[in-house]
Amino acid sequence: MLRLSHEEPLSQPPLPQKYPQNSLNQLSFESNYRIICNHFLEFTRGRNLLKGQSLHAYVVKSGLHLIPLVCHHLINFYSKLQLPYSSERIFHETQFKSSTTWSSIISCFAQNELPFHGFEYFKLMRRNDEMIPDDYVLPCVMKACGMSNDQFMGKSVHCLAMKTGFDAHVFVGSSVVDMYAKCGSLGDARKVFSEMPERNVVSWSTMIYGYAQTGEDGEALRLFKAALWEGLDVNDFTFSSVIRVCGNSTWYALGKQMHSLCLKMYYYETSFVGSALISMYSKCGVIEDASRVFNEVSDINLGMWNAMMIAWAQHAHTRMVFELLEKMVNKGTKPNFITFLCILYACSHAGLVKEGKHYFAKMKDYGIEPGSQHYASMVDLLGRAGKLQEALELIEKMPMQATEAVWGAFLTGCRIHRNTELASSVADRVFELGHVSPGLHMLVSNAYAASGMFQEAARARKMLRDRGQKKEPGLSWVEEGNRVHTFAAGERRHELSSEIYRKLEELEKEVEHAGYVMDTTHVLREVGVEEKNESIRYHSERLAIAFALVTFPPERPIRVMKNLRVCGDCHVAIKYISKCTGRVIIVRDNNRFHRFENGECSCGDYW
DNA sequence: GTAGGGTTAG
Question: Where is each DYW domain found (predicted)?
Answer without folding.
Answer: 515-607
